[in-house]
Amino acid sequence: MEQKTSLGVLGGRYVPTILVAVSVLVLWEGIITIGNIQQFLLPKPSVIFGELWYEITLFFGSGSRSALFDAAGATLWEALGGIVLGCGGGFLVALVTARWTIVNEAVMPLAIAANSVPIIAFAPIMNNWFGITNPFSKMAIVAIIVFFPMMINTVRGLTLVDPLQLELMYSYGAKPFKILFALRLPNALPYIFSALRVASSLSVIGAVVAEFFGGPRATLGVFITQEASGFNFSRAWAAIIVASVIGISLYLLVLFAERRLMSWHSSLREKG
Amino acid sequence: MSETAKSIVISAKNLYKTYQSSQSEPVIALQDVNLDVYAGEFISLIGPSGCGKSTLLRLIADLTKASSGELLVNGKTPYEARLRREYGMAFQSATLYEWRNVSQNVQLPLEVMGYPKKQRIQRAQEMLDLVELGAFGNHYPWQLSGGMQQRVAIARALAFEPSLLLMDEPFGALDEFTRERMNMELLRIWERTGITVIFVTHSISEAVFLSSRVVVMSPRPGRITKVVENNVPYPRVFETRETPAFFERVTEVRELLRDAHEA
After folding, report:
1. Position A10 pLDDT exceeds 70
2. How far apart are CA A211 and CA A171, in angstroms?
3. Which residues contact A71 (CB under 8 A, 6 or more apart)?
4. Using CB atoms within 10 A of its CB, is residue A184 exposed (0-12), middle (13-18) or buried (19+)?
5. Which member of B17, B18, B124, B178 lies 3.0 to 4.6 Å from B174 by CB, making a disulfide possible if both were Cys?
6. Within this chain, do residues B106 and B137 fall inside the same structural domain, yes or no?
């Protein structure tokens, strides 16, 4: 009963969003049809989704392969690998950084500066280091991009602890490890999830743009550049949609995990 | 009164605490504090802000170090007493961990001290029963009112059965009505457990209602003006606040505070 009402409320909340999205698509289709706009400038949504549907039938059909979804799989792999390496590394470095004040003071300004560097510009260098067709060259870019937000946020979460909560632990004569696991890490959880949310969207952007600098044929970035240069713009658009869906799915996945693990947090409580 | 027969829980001799600041003169937070607290007493520290009442409590809790003088807690240095978990502490805010439910919050000190899980759960339930929140173990802190949260904090402070309870304005953020109910509840717990309580407050009526002795303090430099013996008989009940004896003690403390302020 309760489940049903909350689902109903949830569905109701998204009705305006869905209406706006559908209206935009209808308007897009209408303007191109009425204004007689050339397909290579902007294909109709119906054509793009037709292209997408064709690839879906190839993907699920026996004996056929979908070039688009092969590319999507490769890019997803790069993005996921980059997230694991970059976020994992950022988290571990943050643990060390937060533990020693001296390291913290020395490293944090550098990390914050590095976070503002356009990391994507290193893509050609990574191609040179790891090989242009090696997925690790793209993973490395994604990893570096997501490393700094994760590290900076985790350090903040571990160090910005309510002094009274720390004194409480101190009054129990708690060891540093106990304070880390019982207080600092739970305190850092909201910060870590906010970094993961940033990482989930940055990872796909990083992977696709890194692929623009060259990569194996079966990656979304290369797929988009090749189809665009062959004037198959509806196929390029279909690939962009797939890249968006991957980015949004990763984001929703993080959001879902966040709701499961942090139901106690003020931002996620049911509004009373 | 056979106080000499009772054991001394806290003994402060010529205690000083100064805060060095780079810009100005060092601030004397506590000057020549001498105080003995006996087992089972309920002591209130009262005075305007800057009188050093919280500093004195934090010295006892080993959350800050004295500049000079001697301070013993159960015959040991505050550092040793802290490591031997001889006191429980409650702050002005309940300081519950929001990611733990009420029972898990009460279990926190037991967890740090390595109690087995079964005993932890049982002990937490006993403590929650004591503060009359037995049915709220599975609730999260945000689901409780301010007064209920503070009761959880008291349950947590008592969970490992310390002999000493240190409280830093624990009811300061509560409304008058809730505060009076909490005072009654605290006295009930105190009488049942026989624990020694050091209670920091700036409410005169709260100090007189609760304590066996009221330590009146004054600022700049922070020092003890007078220790008021409170002969209002226990058990103290709701009507106690309307008795002449209560009124007399309140007046005495109020005048001491005023004199200290004008001096």
Report:
1. no
2. 54
3. A217, A218, A219, A220, A222, A223, A239
4. buried
5. B178
6. yes
Helix (H) or strand (E) run with residue A45 in it: helix A45-60
Task: Convert A158-218 into a string of H (helix), E (strand) and C (coil).
Answer: HHCCCHHHHHHHHHCCCCHHHHHHHHHHHHHHHHHHHHHHHHHHHHHHHHHHHHHCCCCCC
Cβ <8 Å between B112 and A178: yes
Residues B147 and B176: beta-carbon distance below 8 Å = no
Q: Which two tokens stand for residue B210?
A: 């609760």
Residue B239, Ramachandran bin (φ over 0: left; ψ between -120 and 50: alpha; else beta):
alpha
Give me the interface pTM, i.e. the ipTM. 0.88
Asked if B254 reaches chain A (Cβ–Cβ under 8 Å), the answer is no
CATH architecture of A67-268: Orthogonal Bundle (1.10)
Chain A residue with the nearest C-alpha to that of B96: A165
Q: What is the per-residue pLDDT for A175?
A: 92
* Chain A positions in Cβ-Cβ contact with residue B93 (cut-off 8 Å): 164
Q: A234: closest CA among A32, A77, A46? A: A46
On the 0-12 / 13-18 / 19+ scale of CB atoms within 10 A, B149 is buried
Do the beta carbons of residue B43 and residue B55 sit within 8 Å?
no
For residue range B4-55, list pLDDT tens digits in order.
457 999 999 999 999 887 777 888 899 999 999 999 999 999 999 889 999 9
Place of tokens 């829980």: B9
pLDDT reported for residue B1: 43
Per-residue pLDDT of A75-108, as tens digits, reads 999 999 999 999 999 999 999 999 888 888 888 9
- Cα–Cα distances in angstroms (integers) from residue B229 to residues A54, A100, B166, B180, B211, in the given order: 91, 49, 20, 22, 9
Type and span of the H or E element at B167: strand B164-168
Structural domain that includes position B139: 93-161
Q: Which residue of B has its CA nearest to A186?
A: B99
Domain boundaries, chain A: 1-37, 67-268
Contact check, Cβ <8 Å, B99/A173:
no
**A-side interface with B, Cβ within 8 Å?**
162, 164-165, 167-174, 178, 182-183, 186, 189, 262, 264-266, 269
B16-37: buried (b, 16+ CB within 10 Å) or exposed (e) per residue?
bbbeeeeeeeeebbbbebebeb
Paired sense of beta strands B68-73 and B8-19, if any: antiparallel
Looking at the fold, whether B200 and B72 belong to one and the same domain comes out as: yes
